[in-house]
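Figure 6 in text form: structure in, sequence out.
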């Protein structure tokens, strides 16, 4: 049963591991993640929704025209003295009203500006999502490489232990070792089989993560290039992050939007001035009677008493502004801390990788020495197996440290806001967050030229 399980797992690994005919670089993985990420598509749609909020607010400053059409039938009678009048009749009416806001003490203008700040904040949030997607692609790429190398390492270890078992059995047959030595070799071989099965299972999981993040199964992964340039000064990196990190810039725009919302809420206590015109037409279908009328004028309207609703709205806007200010301080501290943590992790991974090089060299020398001493009878089979396991652990530690070093380096870029398609120079068309906004910011109608362009854009987005 153990052999059958092992064969089944190996077959699964072979079936899920892509044919190594296509070479995939780290840049390819990040490009794939950028172009196929559903999370990016989701947040791009949220950005377009924020763009439409600007258009909706802008529409309040444009002429508003509404119409009402009505068909009615009246029935009944009216008596005046001895005369009875029949009231039955059919009537059609049509009314059209046009309004234009002239002045409202900045309430609408501040609302528009607040929503523009929200758009800018949403753009920065999209950049932050982009960084997370690209870092996850780096992690997925390095994980597959690490798991593949670890499987190869375990397979080599299995071959070595198989040879050790054969050697122990040969020496047992000539009386050089005891049955205990053979049992120890058999135990380590069984453990190696278990480690290989675990490594193969982990590789399958890494492949599935890669497929999920990048949008396709990995090909033959190419050794990644040199580490990206990140700079050695932590303080300089912190200062850069405070100026440019998308999370911090997003909150700054949210604070600005909250300030403008306060101004808009305060302006609601003032009156508004608007111009309006209307035309009314009423026709009696059963007769030639009709009525036509029209008017044009300027209207002044404002609140007198609304039960404290306006004052409550102002206080709520102030509280929301204060919350955003507090969030700004928290995010700034978190950004600075993340930079420090990222640099600390990078330094630790570098030291770990350097340490593993010395560990591997020493472990190999020790293993060769113990094996030669065992041939002379100065060492036991257990000593040889322990030395071999130490060499294996050292190799595995180096593989892990190499993968972690790359991930740590790109995490430094993320912490400073530089892990973007633009900063990395990836060969992929970049999403333009301003393109849709430029089409909708003036609140175009569906039949206008801009509206028709928007229809084409939306159809193209739906096809994607």
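Output sequence:
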């Amino acid at each position: 049963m153990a052999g059958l399980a092992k064969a089944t797992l190996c077959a699964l690994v072979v079936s899920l591991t892509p044919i190594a005919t296509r070479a995939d670089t780290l840049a390819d993985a990040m490009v794939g993640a950028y172009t196929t990420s559903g999370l990016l598509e989701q947040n791009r749609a949220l950005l377009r929704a924020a763009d439409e909020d600007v258009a909706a607010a802008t529409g309040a400053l444009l002429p508003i025209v509404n119409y009402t059409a009505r068909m009615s039938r009246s029935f009944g009678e009216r008596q005046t003295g001895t005369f009875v009048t029949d009231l039955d009749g059919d009537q059609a009416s049509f009314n059209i009203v046009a309004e234009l806001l002239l002045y409202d003490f900045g309430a609408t203008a501040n609302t528009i500006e607040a929503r523009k700040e929200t758009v800018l904040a949403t753009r920065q949030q999209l950049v932050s999502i982009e960084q997370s997607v690209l870092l996850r692609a780096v992690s997925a790429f390095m994980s597959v490489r690490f798991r593949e190398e670890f499987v190869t390492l375990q397979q080599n270890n299995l071959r070595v232990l198989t040879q050790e078992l054969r050697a122990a059995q040969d020496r047992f047959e000539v009386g050089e070792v005891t049955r205990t030595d053979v049992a120890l070799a058999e135990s380590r071989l069984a453990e190696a089989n278990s480690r290989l099965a675990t490594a193969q299972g982990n590789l399958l999981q890494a492949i599935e993560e890669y497929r999920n993040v990048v949008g396709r199964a990995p090909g033959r992964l190419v050794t990644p290039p040199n580490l990206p340039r990140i700079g050695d000064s932590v303080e300089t990196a912190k200062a850069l992050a405070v100026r440019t990190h998308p999370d911090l810039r997003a909150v700054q725009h949210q604070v600005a939007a909250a300030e403008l919302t306060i101004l808009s809420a305060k302006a609601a206590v003032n009156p508004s001035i608007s111009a309006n015109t209307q035309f009314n037409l009423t026709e009696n279908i059963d007769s030639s009677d009709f009525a036509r009328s029209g008017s044009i004028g300027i209207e002044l309207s404002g609140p007198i008493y609304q039960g404290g609703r306006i004052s409550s709205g102002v206080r709520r806007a102030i509280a929301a502004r204060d919350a955003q200010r507090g969030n700004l301080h928290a995010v700034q501290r978190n950004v600075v801390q993340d930079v420090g943590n990222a640099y600390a992790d990078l330094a630790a991974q570098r030291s770990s990788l350097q340490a593993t090089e010395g560990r591997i060299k020493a472990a190999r020398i020790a293993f060769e020495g113990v094996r030669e001493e065992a041939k002379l009878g100065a060492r036991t089979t257990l000593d040889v197996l322990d030395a071999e396991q130490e060499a294996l652990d050292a190799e595995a530690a180096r593989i892990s440290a190499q993968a972690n070093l790359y991930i740590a380096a790109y995490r430094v870029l993320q912490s400073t806001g530089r892990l973007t398609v633009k900063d990395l120079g990836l060969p992929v068309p970049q999403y333009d967050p301003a393109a849709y906004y430029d089409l909708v910011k003036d609140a175009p109608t569906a039949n206008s030229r801009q509206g028709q362009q928007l229809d084409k854009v939306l159809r193209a987005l739906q096809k994607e």
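Caption detail: The chain has one domain: 2-36+104-268+303-431.
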